[in-house]
Amino acid sequence: MAYRSSKTLGFAACTVASALWGCGFFFGRIALDAMDVGHMVLYRFVFAVIALLPLLITHPPKFTRNDWGILLLASFLGVPLQFLLQFYGLSLTTVSHASLMVGTMPVILAVGAAWFAHERMDKIGWAALAGSSIGAGLIALGGGHAAGGGSTLAGDLLVVVSLGIALFWILLNKRLMERHSAVTVTAYGLVLGTAMLLIWVPFRYGWSPVPFLLGHVPMKAWLASIAAGVLCTATTTLLWNWGMTQVPASQAGILLNMEPLMGSLLGVFVLGEHLGPTAWAGGGLILISAITLTTGSKTRVREQMPLT
Fold first, then answer.
1. HSE-CB for 187 with a 13 A CA cutoff
2. Residue 251 located in a structural domain
């Protein structure tokens, strides 16, 4: 009964995290109207770290030298590399297209869990992987190369590449959380990743105005950056990392389908974007493939560290 209870809470945490992640492209698009990709990502993580400051005080790290090495690698993959690629891809495509491309992540995660975390994948799983890949192709090809803010193949593919990078970030964090709490891994991982952004972004993109003191960036963009940092980064990563300690990665993957659903709905109904029939068909195929794969999983997660 205790296992079922913790598993239910784990699924709930991953569901909320995925739904909030689905708002990330929406807020990112608003910020990108006033900032370049580098500074938008940088400020998103600065605001996330500010929100996590109390946890840095209450949860001192107890990592070994090897653990610090794993955390550094995970932070590099999960923060500067993944997010700069992903949001550069967003700058070349639409919110709804980028969000639907995230529908490939459940299958990518399940394959990674099978290879690296020894979670079993059967023939149905491999068939779902093929279906999801076809769906991603339909979305990308359905977008065309429209000018003036339309979707592009290059943008869609960059989003998918960033998801492959995110796989290793998730699995490395899961490995660390076998020995450390989700709070500690999340808080210090985001701090390290943000420190890397603070080094790279000024070097690559130059310095930008100090928030709120100079009027070069409208308040709407700053509010979107704050929402992306607090809700779509700090909160989501905490919830997702803890949820991953309660459920197997291959089963948690289905809950990532909330992200493309939320992102696509916001893109279509709030930002006025348009999805053609091919893109809708591809998105449906991705979701069906992910559900087919992850609902058949019978694996159990190993005993992990508690949230606190």
1. 21
2. yes
